[in-house]
Design brief:
The chain has 182 residues and is of the alpha/beta class. It is built from eight helices and five strands.
């Protein structure tokens, strides 16, 4: 849904898998799919849907991924589409040695579009109103997703799979065969 919403603004949506993702907070479950299956899932989606491509990034920080895409596709307009939870991470100084320098690098090359996840809207609006984020707020805009999928998460899919419940309305059909059962 996020890729489809982003596709309304750009000609090509790259689904990027980062081989060096940021660590998950304590208490968050491990990934639903292992790395080869995640890469296969992105490849299946890219092959099945016009306007999508798949890429693998060796960099964990989004600013580094944006720079790599910008270097590979010079002159392109980069729209970074993320969930609101990831946007809050992007703005959080805990991830950076020099947040303002890194965010300047990011917003020099890209704009950010975010989809609200769960109950994050108030947190995002608060973060965007924070004077520390004033320089970037004009380059950040909400993306509305079709189909009411804001509450869908890998945790939800994992729990339904554990119970043996169907997940076909939560996961793209191209990915269903890759999911663990039971």
């Amino acid at each position: 849904a996020l890729a489809e919403a982003a596709a309304r603004e750009v000609d090509l949506v790259l689904l990027v898998y980062a081989t060096a993702p940021l660590p998950k907070p304590p208490g968050v479950s491990s990934a639903l799919l292992d790395e080869p299956s995640r890469i296969e899932a992105l490849s299946r989606l890219a092959r099945a849907r016009p306007g999508l491509g798949a890429a693998v990034a060796s960099h964990g920080l989004l600013v580094e991924q944006v720079e790599a895409v910008g270097d590979a596709l010079p002159g392109s307009r980069i729209v970074l589409a993320v969930g609101s939870d990831k946007l809050l991470q992007v703005l959080d100084p805990v991830w950076y040695d020099d947040r303002d320098t890194d965010l300047r690098r990011l917003f020099d090359r890209a704009v950010v579009r975010y989809a609200v996840r769960g109950r994050d809207e108030g947190l995002v609006l608060g973060a965007l109103a924070d004077p520390a984020n004033a320089s970037w707020a004009g380059s950040i805009r909400r993306l509305d997703l079709a189909g009411g999928v804001e509450e869908v998460s890998s945790s939800m899919v994992r729990e339904r799979l554990r119970r043996g419940d169907p997940v076909d309305r939560l996961v793209p059909p191209e990915v269903l065969p890759l999911l663990p059962r039971g």
